[in-house]
Write a structure and sequence with these properties.
- The structure is a single chain.
- This protein is mostly beta strands.
- It has a single domain, classed as Nucleic acid-binding proteins (OB fold (Dihydrolipoamide Acetyltransferase, E2P)).
- Helices cover 9% and strands 41% of the residues.
- The chain is built from two helices and six strands.
- The protein has helices spanning 65-73, 140-144; strands at residues 9-15, 20-23, 35-45, 54-63, 79-92, 98-111.
- A five-stranded mixed beta barrel has the order 1-3-4-6-5.
């Protein structure tokens, strides 16, 4: 029986601290050293109960050219859009207990525009105020749109 599955992650969040970059040692599987960048981004969970939003930290790993990009451009406070897949590894702690670590394996990474929160819009004009154009003026939307 065939089963279908999807392992896709899309996150938008802020970098918690400057990325940690390492170069791996050559091994039998990887003949040449590979660069790896590791960092965390935070996301806020939407809460409908009126409680304070919950922040979640996501471990992110990038290899090769993506690690070069992270090393060169990504800093604490950067707002990023990350796409990738979830992966994991098991590591033994000091007591010999197996600890499973889950992380995002980055496939694409880009910066999001940093904008200030918008102020509340000005009050709507009362009915009849500001609805009409001055004498002889043409509506710019009608002027540019030949279909109106």
């Amino acid at each position: 029986m065939d089963y279908y599955s999807l392992n896709r992650v899309i996150l938008i969040g802020y970098v918690g601290k400057d990325p940690e970059v390492r170069v791996s040692k050559p091994s039998s599987a990887a003949k040449s050293p590979r660069k790896m960048a590791k960092f965390q981004i935070s996301t806020k969970a939407i809460n409908y109960k009126g409680e304070k939003p919950r922040t979640t930290w996501h471990n992110c790993y990038a290899w090769g050219s993506r690690a070069d990009f992270v090393e060169k451009y990504v800093k604490t406070g950067s707002l990023l859009l990350i796409e990738g897949k979830l992966d994991n590894y098991v590591m033994r702690d000091a007591e010999g207990q197996a600890r499973k670590h889950i992380y995002v394996c980055i496939e694409t990474i880009s910066f999001m525009p940093m904008t200030k929160p918008q102020e509340a819009p000005a009050a709507e004009p009362a009915a009849g105020e500001g609805d009409s154009l001055p004498e002889g003026a043409q509506d710019p939307i009608e002027k540019e749109n030949p279909f109106l």
